[in-house]
Queue: 3 jobs
Job 1
Amino acid sequence: MCARSRIVLLAAAVAAVLATPVAAQPSSSWSSRIEGDAVKQPTAPPGTVMVPRPPTGPRVIAPPAARQSSVLKKGATPTAALKPIPEPKGDNAAYLAFDNGQFLTALKLAEQAAQTGQPEAHTLIARIHGEGHGVPRNPALAAQWFQRAAELGDPEGAFALGLMYVAGRGVEKSNPNAAGMFERAAATGHVYANYNLGLMFLSGLGKPENPIRGAQHLTYAAEKGIAAAQYDLATLYINGHGVAADGYLASRWLKRAAEQNMAEAQFDYAIMLLKGQGLNEDRADALRYLRLAADHGLAAAQNRLAHVLNEGSGTPPNKREAAKWRLLAKSQGLADDKLDGMVRQLPGADRTTAEALAGEWLERASVGASQQ
């Protein structure tokens, strides 16, 4: 969303705050995984681990592109435009050509390697057709090449085909088939395959529901540094689902995800600290984690930060800044009559300052998003 559009939304939210009569002030409206009674969450199937966004199926995560050509980056100058590049040689010639943006050369070299039975060559051919590098995009053809790569033992090919089965892209959508591909890749230690397979065991989608197996796969991915796995594993320890309930381990994994800049983890860890839970050495950092989550644009974190600043919980009260964060949370549709009343009761100058601060934050957020 562009800066102008977001500021228009903010202005509408401000107008709604100022136009609404002061009403009774119920408890704040915000949510986290560790305070499930704050906001009613969507009903989940037995064994499903709830996530902040409503789940629509397996919460699959694909790894960052392992091989990214400079010509694929926004605003980059194609390497080939700088000087002629000779055709690569050697075992990795096809991938070297791909990295240099020589997609048709990469396809030719990969096809030659595929004729000798090289599994990774099949995966590269699939990616070229699936993403449309130098050729028309063809998901169905890509799925065929990924299938052959998986049969030859390439875990990346198996994992990629699993993602296609989940999405129904190039193949008929099938959670069981996706689970089979993830399981094949996970057996080789593929970290993202282990994570996604764990979620399938937890949800019963594509695999029989088995919380213990699910926790085992999530633990593997969490130990390998996947923030989403660390966050979900913390939830299992909070709920005692698939593992024995353990507040210390929940805090430990939640903190590790928060340190990887995961907004939901920063928010939930801040809530644990505000409630006097979490790791002892971090108790004074509750406000820091809450600010980080709010700065990521998480409406619930923005709203909770507004409450903390309004009430002066562990920090001097700052109603203007509290109003700023409340306006930002309200612009995302989060209701809170108590904070709306606080904004309406601010002196005109303070309210104007809060609106300006919120607008400046939206400008910075929009500029940051446009540069990604």
Job 2
Amino acid sequence: MKEIIVNQKYDGKKLNNFLLDTFPGLSPNLFYKTLRKKDIRVNGIKIAENVTLSAGDKISIYLSDEQLASHYSKLIDIVYEDNNIVILNKPAGIEVTGENSLSTILNFSPCHRLDRNTTGLVLFAKNEEALSILLEKFKHHEIEKHYRAAVIGIPAKTRATLVAYLFKDAKKSLVYISDVPKKGYEKIVTSYQVISINKKQNTSILDVTLHTGKTHQIRAHLAHIGHSVVGDGKYGNNEINKKLGYKTQQLCSYSLTFAFQTDSGILNYLKNKQIILKS
């Protein structure tokens, strides 16, 4: 049995939206089957309807870890694995950390994060020594990540390195970008190269590299220069997203290279190894 409190984000939303977002391994079929059996309670009351929730409601769902695990297994797409690390292809709709995340499913420690609806390669360490080494490598930019982003519009420059300043508003779960330094803002650097363009749709595919790794950096920085990620409901253009038929950001971490410049201990064998997600 799982218990969880409804947060403000889901105030006035339907039960199925809340539970399917909260438990990514829960399929719609299993949700409605559980509902029919009255194995879901809201504030201690058994229900058989897809009710509207209020912030603060206490939801109890009577499903075993084994039942949820059978659905979680569908989320595990292992791209590379050895005795020290595992690299997954993360689907949209699941967090890297937190409750019912990839970290809890795998029981391994993530070395970096992706946004909930960003897809692609995520690196996990299987032991403390590997985790310590990899965190240090990320800190010193000895692991290179490339993203593929579909964006609205066609950039004037085919390649560019963008420099700006980012402020994170944790309460609103938003970041703000400034072209000039401001108090509380941190410097960000983002590079892109145009891979292809679609003049008919007025969209482009970019190869994006982060030189600094801040929250929502790619999405916010590209939106700031007028080329928001297709499907991004937070920083993008919802009217255009709807016309193009996308509800989540079209952003994928597709390449990871272990560009080690210094000794890497038990992970020296990974030096110059590149993992590329097949499209």
Job 3
Amino acid sequence: MKKKLITKIKEFWKRFTKVINRPEMAILPGQLAFFFVLAIVPTITLITMGASLLNLSTDLIYNFLARAFSIDIASMLLNTNNTTSGVNLLLLIIIGYYIASNGSASIIITSNTIYGEEQTSFLYRRIKAIVMTFFLVILFIFMLIVPVFGNTITSLIENVNIAPIITERIITIFHLLQGPMTWIIIYFFIKLLYTIAPNKQVKSKSVGYGALFTSVGWIIATSIYSFYINNYAHYSTFYGGLASIVVLMLWLYLLAFIFTIGMALNYRKEEEEIEKTATLNLENQKETMKN
């Protein structure tokens, strides 16, 4: 049992060192992190617009951003005195998500490069990138709401003037989503993205290896980020907001970096299995010829 574990660790380390030296590792993580940041603004705008259409107060969103980062950042991301018309606002959201989808387009191009597949037409790639961006945004929002700022949001909900039964149910849902349920949801979304990114048909089980690595890496990185935000982000009134932005960007870069490694690990493992199969077939052919 111990020997098997050591062998698996050595195999993983061998794959990891080969993957980390790939040329795309120097390019894609930074691109993804940049487009993740771009996706924040239209996402918050969309949430705010939805709250306005439902005649809900945007104070909860504003207080959440103010407590999570700073009042200045909340004012910058969420202008409570916004008078932009509905059509212009919708156009802003569409443009924002279209630009943000360049990150997913980079994932598609890189995954095709890793798997040795030809690039498809721009229109097909862009449609797929927009769909992937939608899934990435949902995952990103989920990670911010549940594992990162879950405690902050529950405390804000308790102070909102709504029915106690509704408040209790919302808090119960938050508690249920935290922990193992969060890990399963993250793993599911990452596996889905790895499956649909390349042009070739990829079996869901063949991307489980990289998806597991990415999920564990994201959970560790998110736990560290959450610990910082909840314990150290507001110790300095002058540098608190600036430090929060820097740490947010660092967290997003780490997520993008881990995501790229996981995608390359999937291909590397698949490549090793093909090499093993080819070697076994060659040995069988030699034995047949001898006989």
